[in-house]
Design a protein that fits this description.
Chain lengths: 756, 151
Amino acid sequence: MHFNMEKVNTNTGRRAFLKTSLLAGGGLMLHFSGLAKMASLVDGGTEPAAKWVEITGYVHITPENIVTLICPNPEFGQNVMTSLPMMVAEELDIDWKKVVVEMGPHDNVKLGPQFTGGSNSMRMYWKPLREAGATARNMLMQAAATDWKVPVEELTTNAGMLYHEKSNRKATYGEFASKASVLPVPKGVKLKEVKNFKVVRNSQKNVEGAKITSGKPLFGLDYKHEGMLIAMIQHPPAFGMKLKSFDGAAALKMPGITAVFNLKLYEDGFEQAGFDVRTFNDLLVVVGKTTWEVMNARKKLVVEWMPAGDVKDTMSGRGGKREVVVPGELENTSAQLQKMADYAKKPAKELRKDGDPETAFKQAAQVIERTYNAPFLAHNCMEPMNFFAHVTDEKALLVGPLQAPGWTEPTLAKILNLPPEKIEIQMTRMGGGFGRRAYGHYLIEAALISRKVMAPVKLIYSREDDSTYGIYRPMYTATYRAALDANKNLIAFHVKGGGIPEHAIHANRFPAGAVDNYLAEGWEIPSNITVGAFRAPRSNFNAAAEQSFLDELAEAMGKDPIAFRLELLKRAKENPVGKNNEYDADRYAAVLNLVKEKSGWNGPEHTKYSRGVAAYFCHNSYAAHVVDLTLKGGEPYVERVYSAIDCGIVVNPDAATNMVQGAVVDGIGNSLYGGLTHKDGVVEENNFHKYRIIRMHEAPKKIEVSFVHNDIDPTGLGEPPFPPVFGAVANALYKASGRRYYQQPYASPQPNSQSV
Amino acid sequence: MITLNINKKTYRIDADPNTPLLWVLRDNIGLVGTKYGCGVAQCGACVVHLDGEAVRSCVTKISRAQGKKVLTIEGLSAANDHPLQKAWLELDVSQCGYCQAGQIMSAAVLLREKKDPSDQDIDDAMAGNICRCGTYLRIREAIQLAAKETR
């Protein structure tokens, strides 16, 4: 199942070729800056491996001309296993149909950051992978030219073959792979022009498609290892609770059970980095031979839980370490909503101010104010959390689904007291990620359990364990205010957003830059409910609230919703307000114009459907949707959606279309049905009979996706199409029902109207 | 000892007769194509055929499966060439892929019973299969394509 790559020794040390750079939003990122010179040597010697020849970290070619491309980033359905190797194949000039693709191991030196998230894979690897392919091709040509004693400029390639037409000679890449591998790795090899692409920009089938449809072992939950035991953790039943005491005697007597014990995840004072988030520190563990036996035995645990009270956590960050007090309250949704309403009235932190919004609002002929709310969301990936670990005093092998091995490995190294070189992480295919699997607490848990029982162990979360563990999308609210003058011109715009435990406001996003007087503020309520990145963090709420508000504003001003947005964008382009406006007004307007055209926005469809439009820019790509909704027996049903996307060069068009369609369905489902509630700290929606996920009969029959055609370097698609779906659904619901929707999930009973 | 017939092979399983078929398939036999998604018959990732009927293996005890024919995704075809599997690949349905075996197994029963399934037929038959990635449109198209190819 996994390609066991031998680690190639470098003379200059493991981290020699990593560069650091500051991310726009803060934080350091490690970059793979170029190809390491070490690619020439295997195991310290000069003889290439007999079986395969590694030209660069991403390309392996056997003497028989079998080409294996290594995918650096773990896969969770966004199809990087196809799209990333396509980039290599394009420049390498090989027959795509014959390519073998393998998921790479965790190796940040050879394979780059290996972080699946932030819709960054395509963007981050576009240049490095193309360079890898072009460089490998160059080295093969050099090897052939040397052997044939001809100038390398006279050589050509095609589909894995080398040609010297003048002397009528040809050879496969495989024939020269060994010789190429001992050449010095050239720098700055020229890349193809976009207009000459043969692989990229053409739809290629998912390289793992056949394995999926035939039930091959692919996922972490499928992974098997000799002697492997199964472990499950009994978590506290509520946020804010901890273990008081337990009696594992009855559980231990159950068939198949080998151990019952408790462990601490982090020792007191452990400095947590950004992705070390965890909800429960006590690990009450049952270990046994099979899953069902462990599930049964867990029920026999006799446990006493107690309120944890306020807990001090130590967080590490750019300024050094700091202590955070996690409140001990056993929270209730009704109290959360009340708290948010109270906090909304208090002063908040100013995030951006342009002009003089206070005066503008005082002088306004009309002020429109609306408040939007959205609940916690659970990721509920189809494959519950799980990880395999085999830990000894000397080394650790970990196998399973995760998005960012580089972020959890340092924590593993610290806690297991092993150097990183002794920790091997293999990434399986993930049954969904959505941001949840960037938080590696479950790797640490599996590793600690394995070390304790001195055996290979797979840790499994049941659906209930997974749904109730936390690391949710936060609970959000935002109040928008707009000031209109006597001629119904927009003279001021104010957004004050808050949340548990953080707000969603992106102060520099549209419509900032388009309004003379602008104010953005944010506030937060601390909580013990843990949160983490959820498909387009913050944006997934903003686009609902802001795009609903713009729609209502347009109506108050007597304008068409798309025309109104285009007017604002025109202002932002021609005479922008303020600095750091985080969007390209032309590209933003382009997706609105495209969706307007494709949906027949000005046509008669408005009589057949309730139409809502929304657009958003996040994670470097632009998206706009028109949602066509009807009411089926009083219940909202989205029949069709038109989507317009600008993500630069579309590497794999059909895969990209699939992604957008999936994001649309996900957005409809989450906006209409998604959300969880708390009662005394207990999550009430602990499985799919209570946490409602959109199903086949609730999904649109048609989602037509159009891409803006340009030659801009590719940006991502995992997140950008998702947020504006929420706004478009809300706006369509208004048309269908005559009332505005301010509270998600939209299919739930709505509180009283806010219109004045 | 429970004797099970799975994908036309006989297995003698040493497990509690109350063990759900899902876990015997995955842990005891090693057929991991059938997936665990919820354990409460809500998501359909665990669907297998029991004497041709689509059942949720997460709540089907192996005692119930005794003497019956169990078919899993691994046994649906010899060469990944059931019309549904072919349609799934033709239309590139899968995203993460975790739910797809269950989707195909549910769809296989629909196709056997309805040669020309309507949208409503598909809605009804597939209502119990969740896809968190949202590939429903393509699943629908693939069912329709497979039905067309079979007619």
